Amino acid sequence: MTVNSQEGRPKGRRRPPRPTRDEARNAAYDLMRAVDERDAYANLLMPTLLRQRRVSGRDAALATELAYGTLRGLGTYDEIIAACSDRAPENVDPPLLDAIRLGVHQLLKTRIPPHAAVSATIDLVRLRVGAGPSRYANAVLRKVAGRTLEEWLAIVAPPREQDPVGNLSVTYSHPRWIVTALRDALGGGVDETAALLEADNERPRVALVARPGRCSVGELVAAGAEPAAYSPYGVYLTEGDPGAIPAIGEARAAVQDEASQLVALALTRVPLAEDGQAGERWLDMCAGPGGKAGLLDAVAVRNGARLLASDVQYHRARLVWGTTREAKVIVADGTEPPWRPAAFDRVMLDAPCTGLGALRRRPEARWRRDPRSIPELTGLQRRLLDSALDAVRPGGVVAYVTCSPHLAETRAVVDDVAGRAELLDAREFLPEVPDLGDGPYVQFWPHRHGTDAMFLALLRRT
Questions:
Q1: Please, is 333 exposed, middle or buried when counting C-beta atoms within 10 Å of its C-beta (0-12, 13-18, 19+)?
Q2: Is the same domain home to 115 and 165?
């Protein structure tokens, strides 16, 4: 037998090259495993992972794109994987499936050369899953690489004319029930629903708020931002880390979606039906983690008002405390409140909801939510809205807000209290924003306004 003297084994039987560890891909993979195994929130965990691994610059951008892009495209990618395998995705070991999904995203949605995408994914599988599974991953990925995304969609998505919801679900990677809910909220148009779903899959701009009296828009623009389209206190950060801006670190400014800023401002702009005592009293009932409370706190100080911010969870109340200055912050259940009835002039109720309006920012949320949770959520929303109307004095105003356009969480909840309050036309208090719908509600949309799909109803207690 001829022996290779350098390796001490039979000639012609070469050991496979040692897999290369790619920190960006490993960080993306670990994020996906954390989402699957412990329901981690991608937008909260990713910065921590990158900091712990000392991944920065272009590698950090790659890790973020791979993880977020793969989580958004999960439904589409699983259909394609199923077409390239003799096993259904649900029958593939989850650690292996997540690695293959990362590879599919690189092949179909990035400019990474196919050979590099396959090679890097196989190295990842060998390092994190095993040598045996890497052969299965290699076979699947090489089949995927044989067609473009558009060509695969023509194969795996049902025809739009026969099954429009199924076509949109596969094409834009949203569960069928979410496609149906968003279509109904938009009024049933397939083309606009497609535009919304496409916007959900785009990476959102980072929106910041300059809290009035504490920071100016000019200060944030000087730090590299550009003025927002609608909010007088809003800017967009086109590049860079928001945490590197001094005003953010000092809580004079914050990361906050523009729609979130505007629904809070709308509440402060409504004239009260009857003059209250000097110094209005405001309440933020479900204030955590504190975005709207931080802005309301700053506006309240300028208006001579006082804000009470409450949340049922201690750790969320702590976040509110850290982002406000003058507000009083308490831990309390809004459905069994400690405050007396009719104690406030203005009440903000940003109710717990499915979060379907923030799918751009929370890429895994579309797969985490279950339509069976909606009855429980809407029951809680109704109890909280009743409590909010109890808390506001006659002539005072309640803002009912959800980060969801689902009709069951928005109009249906408000309709149930129609006998207790006058429903105001909320569009009148946001004159700077076009295309808000037919009223009297306000509905923001990612594809129309570039914001989260946030809903606002303004109710005056009678």
A1: middle
A2: no
Same-domain check for residues 180 and 97? no
Structural domain ending residue among the three candidates 149, 184, 211 = 149
C-alpha span between 324 and 321 (Å, rounded):
6
Residue 253 domain flag: no
pLDDT average, residue stretch 167-195: 97
Alpha-carbon distance of 307 to 300, in angstroms, equals 7
In eight-state DSSP terms, residue 59 is H
Taking the C-alpha atoms of residue 250 and residue 57, their distance in angstroms, rounded to an integer, is 24
In angstroms, rounded to a whole number, what is the distance separating the alpha carbons of residues 397 and 302?
19
Kindly report, residue by residue over 258-297, the tens digit of the pLDDT: 999 999 999 999 999 776 555 899 999 999 999 999 999 9
Look over the chain and give the mean of its residue pLDDT values, rounded to a whole number: 93
User: Do residue 295 and residue 189 come from a single domain?
Assistant: no
Asked if residue 227 lies in contact with residue 235, where contact means CB atoms within 8 angstroms, the answer is yes
Q: At what angle do helices 42-53 and 23-38 cross, to 10 degrees?
A: 140
Q: What is the pLDDT of residue 2?
A: 42
DSSP line for 346-384: EEEEE-----GGGTTT-TTHHHH--GGGHHHHHHHHHHH
Whether residues 129 and 171 fall in one domain: no
- Helix (H/G/I), strand (E/B), else coil: 196: helix
Which of helix, strand or coil describes residue 442? strand
Domain residues for the domain of 428 are 259-461
Residue 135 placed within a domain: yes
Closest listed residue to residue 137, CA positions, set 85, 188, 183, 80? 85
Going 148 to 153 to 123 to 30, the CA torsion angle's sign is positive
Q: Is the peptide bond before 375 cis (omega within 30 degrees of 0)?
A: no
Per the residue annotation, which of 215, 286, 353, 403 is the catalytic one? 403
Q: Which tokens sit at 329?
A: 């912050």
For CA atoms 386, 392, 396, 398, the dihedral sign is: negative
Same domain (yes/no): 293, 325: yes
With respect to residue 208, please indicate whether it lies within any of the assigned structural domains: no
- If asked whether residues 196 and 289 sit together in one domain, one would say no
Furthest CA-CA distance within the chain: 101
4 located within any domain? no
Q: How many domains does the chain have?
A: 3
**Which residues lie across from 208 on neighbouring strands?**
235, 255
pTM score of the predicted model: 0.91
Q: Is 403 a catalytic residue?
A: yes
**Considering just the CA atoms, what is the radius of gyration of the chain in Å?**
25
Q: Which of 159, 143, 100, 155 is nearest to 125 (CA)?
A: 100
Beta strand segments in 148-260, E: 206-210, 225-227, 234-237, 253-255
